[in-house]
Write a structure and sequence with these properties.
Rossmann fold, 7 strands, globular, alpha/beta, 7-stranded parallel β-sheet
């Protein structure tokens, strides 16, 4: 299946994890890619990989927390490809810890990337998406449904983008733009090895057991299939679907489980 043949897809946070896997999956389905992230070396390597497989790829260094970066990227994408059909707002990271140890700046920094970064992405690309009657993809999290102790900044940000996706789904329907919220559970990515300052800690171990992790390629296939069908939302991983279902239908049971078994967020990865 090549459901995105000759379409152009822009992905923020494309240098690793779900973003990079989505780039490969969209390319496999015929799309050309605009890859955005802060790590230029990884973006360049990914773009070269996609081009070796016959797709065009534009690697652009951009930071979703910087005003103007995304507008410049969209202008370059328009010049290179002429249009944008799909935009994936994927850039994000997680700040964790008990509230008494966190500062207001921690919460501001979390929202600057995970929430306002998505809003900047929407503002920069909306005209292109309307012109193409395209698709906007917002990457949230199961943490946008179930908040655990120690996850308040991250969960708050993901609750917020869930609300944003729901509102925009209604708002943009008349313009022919489909909005898909992606809510992943535990996917095999680097996010749990990024510290509260947003720095990747290469020596940090993966805190989630391997048997719970879904490969990024598997997650990407499920996401791209949902985007192709213009679905309103897709929850990734079986445990993620169970958590969302229980939170929707028996929140009291989820609360009892969290408190009885001492469920809490992962720790911040140690800094050297």
């Amino acid at each position: 299946m090549r459901g995105f043949q000759n379409q152009t897809v822009m992905i923020t946070g494309a240098s690793s994890g779900i973003g990079a896997a989505l780039a490969r999956e969209f390319a496999a389905q015929g799309a050309d890619l605009v890859l955005l992230a802060r790590r230029a070396d990884r973006l360049t390597a990914l773009a070269a990989e996609l081009e070796r497989h016959g797709r065009r790829a534009l690697a652009l260094t951009a930071d979703v927390t910087v005003d103007g970066d995304l507008d410049k990227a969209v202008a370059q994408a328009r010049e290179a490809f002429g249009r944008l059909d799909v935009v994936v707002a994927n850039a994000g990271f997680g700040i964790v810890g008990p509230v008494e140890r966190l500062t207001l700046d921690d919460y501001r920094r979390q929202f600057e990337t995970n929430v306002f970064g998505v809003v900047r992405t929407v503002h920069a690309t909306l005209a292109e998406l309307k012109a193409a009657r395209g698709r906007l993809v917002i990457v949230g999290s199961v943490a946008g449904y179930v908040a655990t102790p120690g996850s308040s900044p991250y969960s708050m940000s993901k609750f917020a983008v869930r609300a944003l996706a729901e509102a925009l789904g209604h708002e943009l329907a008349s313009a022919g733009v489909a909005v898909t919220l992606v809510s992943p559970g535990y996917v095999d990515s680097e996010i749990r090895r990024v510290d509260n300052a947003g720095r990747f800690q290469t020596a940090a171990p993966e805190p989630v057991p391997a048997w719970l992790l879904v490969p990024t390629a598997t997650a990407a296939r499920q996401i791209v299939r949902a985007v192709a069908r213009r679905r309103r939302e897709v929850v990734i991983t079986g445990h993620g679907k169970l958590a969302v279902f229980m939170q929707r239908h028996a929140p009291w049971l989820v609360a009892r489980f969290v408190r009885t078994f001492g469920v809490k967020s992962r720790p911040e990865p140690a800094r050297p």
